[in-house]
Amino acid sequence: MVKVIIGNDHSSVEVKNRLVRWLVSQGFEVTNAGVDTEESIDYPDIAEKACRDFLKGDYDFGILLCGTGIGISISANKIKGIRCALIHDSFCARMAKKHNNANFIAFGGRVTYNEPIESMITTFHTAVFEGGRHRQRVEKMDRLGERGC
Ligand code: RB5
Description:
Distance between the termini: 36 Å
Strand content: 15-25%
Bound molecules: D-ribose
Largest sheet: 5 strands, parallel
Low-confidence stretches: none
Mean pLDDT: 97
Number of strands: 5
CATH architecture: 3-Layer(aba) Sandwich
Number of helices: 6
Strand order of the largest sheet: 2-1-3-5-4
Number of domains: 1
Order of helices and strands: EHEHEHEHEHH
Structural class: alpha/beta
CATH class: Alpha Beta
């Protein structure tokens, strides 16, 4: 079973709930590392929790949501071992896997997209990392985190 962890702040509870229902209906096993109320919370705390749980568990990928996806993706990318891609369309979703081998994708609960988030998740999940020259680049990205640049 494909294991997914999802984290969200107060801005994206409804979208999170919709995505969880959809992911479960697609056969994914989903862990909710986000909040379920609209009480204000700081998105770096959610990013940290979801990413730390991801690194401890045997998850296939993670999904992060805040109002725009920006703050939570920036936060996630501070954590060693996390490559979080902020996604706007299926092209970015596909490339996030094929070239960047992202292990998290982020969306904004307050953003209006031209495509359903569900389609972008499917595109990301079914794409395959190309390796080759992209592996070298991904390894360089990871080393930036390790050196604490
Ligand atoms: C919260 O109001 C909002 O700032 C947050 O969800 C996110 O959009 C930040 O990047």
